[in-house]
Every structure is written in C-alpha cells, then in structure tokens.
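Usage

Read records sequentially. Each one opens with the input sequence:
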Amino acid sequence: MSATSLHSHQTHAVARPTVASITKLVTYSGTLAGVYLSVGFLFYYAAKEKLTAGAMPAGLQKVFAGSFFASVPGDNAAWILLGLIEASIVVVLAVSLARGEFLPTHRKPILLSGLSLGLFATALMGFANDMVGSTSGAAELFTYFGLIAVVMMLVRQLAPYRPLGWLSGNDTPAEAGN
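and closes with the structure output:
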C-alpha cells in the first residue's frame, strides 16, 4: 500500500467514542432526563388531580374557610387556577423538549421558564398555607421551592453553559477535546 493511499484511508476513518465522551453524554442525558421527569410529573399529577376534580376537596375547603382564597376568587376557582398554573408548567416543559433544549448545544430558556413557573406555583401554595396557619405545609412547600431553585442552578451548570464533562468528572485538560 502506498503512503498516499494509506494516508487517505486514515483520514476517512471514523473516530471511536472514548469512555470519557460516553460518560459525559450519559451523565448529561441522565441529569436532564431526571429534571424533565421529576418536575414534569410532579406538576402533571398535581394539575390532573385539580383539573379533573374541578372542585377543592371538602377537607381543604374546611381549612381555607374564612380565608382570602375562600372569598376571592373562591375555593373552587382558586383550586382550578392553581391546576391551570401547574398544567402550564407541564406544557412549557413539553415545549422545551419539542424545541430540542435537551441537546447539549442548545440553551435552555424555555426549561428555565418552566422551572420559574414551578417556583411561582410553589410560592402560591406556600402563601396559602401560611395564610391559614399551616406552618408544616408551608415548610414542606418551601422545601419544594428550594429544590426547584437548586434544579434551576443545576440546569445553568449544564452544557452549553459549561463544558459537557464537568458533571461526569471528565473535563480534565487532557480530555477536554473529547
């Protein structure tokens, strides 16, 4: 084989994925899949419960009796509005997926907007719990709020905002090109 044909054969060879490149992609994909699944289904089932019932459960109506929400906009209307906000989070996450924001090369403004709506919904529920003196419920919702904020910070640390391999530990200078 001549040197010219050997050289042309080598330039057309397909690069094989390395362990580092595979772990980068698996770690990135697993992280984003966890974000979409956990946040998406958290709010999907919450919205489904509220929107299919169409009315606030009797036990909660008793808790909120005499509160601001009982009179403006009313228990059932507040319940439906909260369900619509939660459903909008699911829709926004679906739009994020449809736009391909899960790809490492794409920024994630729609996903971050959906997570922001999650913060808003959680804050509304926490406010309502505080209003009726349910401090344990408010504390639980504050935990959800904080966890959604942490998820937002995590998303901002993923590609394309940072190198793909930082999360998997494969972003050393020797492997930065992989």
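Summary fields computed downstream for this record:
- The radius of gyration is 23 Å.
- The CA atoms of residues 43 and 169 lie 32 Å apart.
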